[in-house]
Amino acid sequence: MITATKEVVMYKTREEALRIQKLKTAARVRKYNKTHPEERKAQKKIDAERAKARYYLRRIKFLELKGGKCVYCGYSRNQRALSFHHLHSKDYDVSAMMSLREDAILKELEKCVILCLNCHKEVHFPHGLK
Ligand SMILES: [Zn+2]
Questions:
Q1: Which of 20, 84, 107, 129 could form a disulfide with 94 if both were Cys (CB 3.0 to 4.6 A apart)?
Q2: Rounded to the nearest whole angstrom, what is the distance from the C-alpha of residue 53 to the centroid of ligand 1?
Q3: pTM (2 decimals)?
Q4: How far is the CA of 55 from the centre of ligand 1 (A)?
Q5: Residues near ligand 1 ion, CB 5 Å cutoff
Q6: Ligand 1 mean position to 16 CA, how many Å?
Q7: 3 contacts 10 by C-beta, under 8 angstroms
Q8: Distance CA 118, CA 123 (A)
């Protein structure tokens, strides 16, 4: 609940004040983005590239931590052709966890080995069927 007099706005709680401050900031950002579309577009591209780089750097780090090569055939030439294979129970897809905390990823990695994509498919589809 807000009570406003001419220029003085009083908020009932600190949380409410913070929420409204956040809304004002978001509105300013939206307004700025609307009046500077090219800048916004360029920033979005930079953000996406940064996110992609961060994803692959983390993925490479965890692949290397698990030996960096396929445990069946030894393949290691292209990291994109390597995958995390769960030996027993699977809680999460490791590659989908790259934005999460490291300890959560390491916990999931304990259940995994590295396989190349060919060996991974052979493990999951031994008879070539669905
Ligand atoms: Zn392999």
A1: 84
A2: 25
A3: 0.67
A4: 23
A5: 70, 72-73, 75, 116, 119
A6: 56
A7: yes
A8: 9
